[in-house]
Amino acid sequence: MFDYMHAEGVSEAEIYWFAEHACPPDIIGVNYYVTSDRFLDHRIEVFPEDRRSAEGAFVDAEAVRASPDGIRGIGPILTEAWERYRLPLAITEVHLGCSPDEQIRWLVECWQQAMWARSRGVNCVALTSWALLGSFYWNELVTRENGHYEPGVFDVQNGSPEPTALAKVVAQIAAGEQPQHPALTEPGWWHLESRLCFPCANQIAA
Q1: What is the pTM of this model?
Q2: Residue burial 86-111, b: 16+ Cβ < 10 Å; e: rest
């Protein structure tokens, strides 16, 4: 970023000062959602208009909905972050606005991938089940009060925290136990072919 900062008026002395007085974080948080992986495509004509990017003549869609390959998962992301920064990592947001069974599947998959990364030397020190008390209006990024609420580990719709089905699995993981739940006998929807909702999904761009 040296050239960019210098072009914007930051002097070389100032840039070098920051390099000489580096203040790296103690831990790096990584947020990863089912929709974090993106599918970029120049064939805008084969996608709905609402998937067209405002930044250019291309489409920006959720890979989970458009790519036959699906999502990468948090494991490879943790590995890349570790190889680049060599600092302790934490998965700081694990949440899925869906049914309790799907929330359990997503949490356990993220936990399993964190364990996979750790087995390969990645210093992943924590996983956060966010949001613990659920989220209001999060389905529209809190841009308006639409009355929508997504329970998390607890459901607070009635004014006091009530444990959801997710709570037991979180407690198992926190206790160092292997998570157990009937929902884990089925794959998450993000692994099913029915997740693909664009006609172009099986037509990979050249």
Answers
A1: 0.87
A2: eeebbbebbbbbbebbbbbbbbbbbb
